[in-house]
């Protein structure tokens, strides 16, 4: 009996080592930390809830943060790294937030499960929980990502969506990441929560002869455009933000799609989605059925958070601190 057990343990160790050295995105699994850190999801969820209870903007920040991470170097927490020339220094990332939430969760987890859980997995879980605590679905996400060792500002602009993009440009970027037109429309639904700076949609207005703003985008509903001009006056001296969803700004729901169909999409890139017949069909469908949106969101979110994952020891690491690589 002892010989049989010893043989089985030897085989298990062999296959574990083989799996680690030849790992890929298929190595991600929902129970990855079931033995090494079984309460990791509870630790992250409680941290997100604590910060969100004190600051209602946290869920939107975390959701935006995961997009800006996954679309550049893959979902490897490279956006969290600080330093000259890192992704965080690109102008598109200067307004990102939620870093303190991830760092706080990491510090807790390092006490309970030292050297075990990656910042990349913590970020994915935090973004997942941001959706759930604002009324969205609780998505079962696979885990096991390693943290990336590379973070370059020069990699940001070629890989992220700009608010001025056409639907064709957005679809091309998403396609390069293995995401479809449907994924583009579904994941754009992240704009059902969160805030946007006035500068992000200033190209939809222009100053008239009196120095006041006037809309130049005829697709915007008139009352919505007027309200935006009040919130973002031409003579504003401080950075101002407005809700991405003017109807249910703090609720993760399918209202975003109704907004698009009624001319209340905040960003030009939002409104572009109804300028393509295929994308518009998805928009209309999702606007009519929130359950369908939630199901589609879960599927597309898992696909996005599996982009370019690093699972082998030769490709990544488990950072001790999320804001800097080890060593």
Q: Structural class, please?
A: mainly alpha
User: What is the CATH homology-level superfamily of the largest domain?
Assistant: Peroxidase, domain 2
Note the run of SSEs as H and E: HHHHHHHEEEHEHHHH
Largest sheet: 2 strands, antiparallel
- Described by the principal axes of the CA atoms, the overall outline is globular
Q: Please, how many helices?
A: 12
CATH fold-level label of the largest domain? Peroxidase, domain 2
Average pLDDT reading = 90
What is the strand content? under 5%
GO biological process, one term: response to oxidative stress
EC number: 1.11.1.7
Protein name: Peroxidase
Catalytic activity: 2 a phenolic donor + H2O2 = 2 a phenolic radical donor + 2 H2O
Describe, in short, the structure shown.
It is built from twelve helices and four strands; from the N terminus they run H-H-H-H-H-H-H-E-E-E-H-E-H-H-H-H. The protein has 327 residues and is mainly alpha-helical. The protein folds into two domains: 22-155, Peroxidase, domain 1, CATH 1.10.520.10; 167-303, Peroxidase, domain 2, CATH 1.10.420.10.
């Amino acid at each position: 009996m002892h010989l049989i057990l010893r043989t089985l343990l030897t085989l298990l160790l062999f296959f574990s080592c083989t799996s680690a050295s030849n790992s890929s995105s298929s190595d991600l699994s929902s129970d990855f930390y079931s033995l090494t850190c079984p309460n990791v999801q509870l630790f992250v969820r409680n941290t997100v809830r604590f910060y969100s209870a004190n600051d209602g903007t946290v869920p939107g920040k975390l959701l935006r943060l995961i997009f800006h991470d996954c679309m550049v170097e893959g979902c490897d927490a490279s956006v969290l790294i600080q330093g000259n020339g890192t992704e965080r220094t690109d102008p598109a990332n200067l307004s990102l937030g939620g870093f303190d939430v991830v760092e706080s969760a990491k510090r807790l987890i390092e006490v309970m499960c030292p050297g075990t859980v990656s910042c990349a997995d913590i970020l994915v879980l935090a973004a997942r929980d941001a959706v759930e605590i604002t009324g969205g679905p609780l998505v079962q996400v696979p885990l096991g990502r390693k943290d990336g060792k590379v973070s370059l500002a020069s990699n940001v602009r070629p890989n992220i969506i700009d608010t001025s993009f056409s639907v064709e440009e957005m679809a091309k970027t998403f396609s390069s990441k293995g995401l479809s037109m449907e994924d583009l429309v579904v994941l754009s639904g992240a704009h059902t929560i969160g805030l946007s700076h006035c500068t992000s949609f200033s190209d939809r207005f222009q100053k008239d002869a009196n120095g006041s703003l006037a809309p130049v985008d005829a697709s915007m509903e008139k009352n919505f455009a007027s309200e935006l001009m009040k919130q973002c006056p031409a003579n504003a001296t401080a950075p101002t933000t407005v809700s991405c969803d003017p109807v249910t700004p703090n609720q993760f729901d399918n209202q975003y799609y109704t907004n698009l169909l009624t001319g209340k999409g905040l960003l030009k890139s939002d409104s572009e989605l109804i300028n393509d017949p295929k994308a518009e069909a998805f928009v209309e469908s999702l606007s009519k059925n929130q359950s369908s949106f939630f199901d589609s969101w879960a599927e597309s979110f898992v696909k996005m958070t599996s982009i370019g994952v690093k699972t082998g020891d030769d490709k990544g690491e488990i950072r001790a601190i999320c804001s800097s690589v080890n060593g």
